[in-house]
Amino acid sequence: MIYKANDYSALIGLKGFSQELLENHFALYEGYVKNANKLLATMTSVFDEVKAAGSHVVELKNRLAFELNGVKLHEYYFDSMSKDAAGEPDRGNPFYQKVALDYGSYQNWKKHFRTVASMRGVGWAIAIYDAQSGLVINTWVDEHHLGHVAGTSPVFVMDLWEHAMLLDYGSDREKYMDAFFKAVDWTVIAERFEKALERQEVHGR
Ligand SMILES: [Fe+2]
Q1: How many CA within 13 A on the CB side of residue 176?
Q2: Which of 37, 169, 189, 193 is most buried, judging by how many CB atoms fall within 10 Å of its CB?
């Protein structure tokens, strides 16, 4: 097994998220791990066969991007949630300070992010740090794999598939977003942002 599913059962009891919703969501995440592992194994074990089949390679690679990003994005998401979350980030938080600089204020960044997250369709709203421009950019990814920006670091990641909200909020994204912002541990976001700052983009000569 190449990827191993993380155990997120400690999140049961998280305010704003029912046990049923979380358990369903964890099971879905485990499905992505299972399917990503299956596809990664296929890539090596039947390489000649796949190569001969030509177009199947495209389908398999698309599927791999779907399943593998399904694993990684859920880990960014669940890893940033905590039962000890204290609401909004404090003013000393480096991510708070950075978005205040890039967007005029933290509240402006949040408003912009929530607008992106309100887009129709299923996917993810992701605030990435782009080392090349030095900016935090709010992005939208369709499903799990369409819309990623190469060479950037995801920092703040919100699941906007229906399964993330439907059981508790129906299709009321606003209420779900309120609950998610309250469930975020901003120290995790600060650590991610600081690690992203240390990373250099690898391209050019
Ligand atoms: Fe999800």
Answers
A1: 20
A2: 193
Is the Cα dihedral 16, 191, 1, 10 positive or negative? negative
Residue whose pair of structure tokens reads 């992701």 in the numeric block: 126
Listed by start position, the domains of the chain span 17-79, 94-198
- Distance (angstroms) between ligand 1 centre and the Cα of 75 equals 10
Write out the CATH class of domain 94-198. alpha beta
- C-alpha 163 – ligand 1 centre gap (Å): 6
Helix (H) or strand (E) holding 182: helix 173-183
Contact status, residue 137 vs residue 127, Cβ threshold 8 Å: yes
For the stretch 132-154, pLDDT in tens is 999 999 999 999 999 999 999 99
Q: What are phi and psi of 158, to 5 degrees?
A: -120, 125
pTM of this prediction?
A: 0.92
- Average model confidence (pLDDT) across the chain: 92
Interval between CA 127 and ligand 1 midpoint (Å): 17
Among the residues of 80-172, which ranges form H helices?
94-103, 106-117, 166-169
User: Ligand 1: distance of its center to the CA of 74 in Å?
Assistant: 6
Task: Give the tens place of pLDDT for each residue, 22-52.
Answer: 999 999 999 999 999 988 887 666 566 666 6
- Is 17-79 in CATH node 1.10.287? yes
> Residue type for 91, please?
R
Could you give the CA distance from residue 188 to residue 128 in angstroms, rounded to a whole number? 14
| Spatial CB neighbours of 40, under 8 Å, sequence gap ≥ 6 | 2, 3, 64, 68
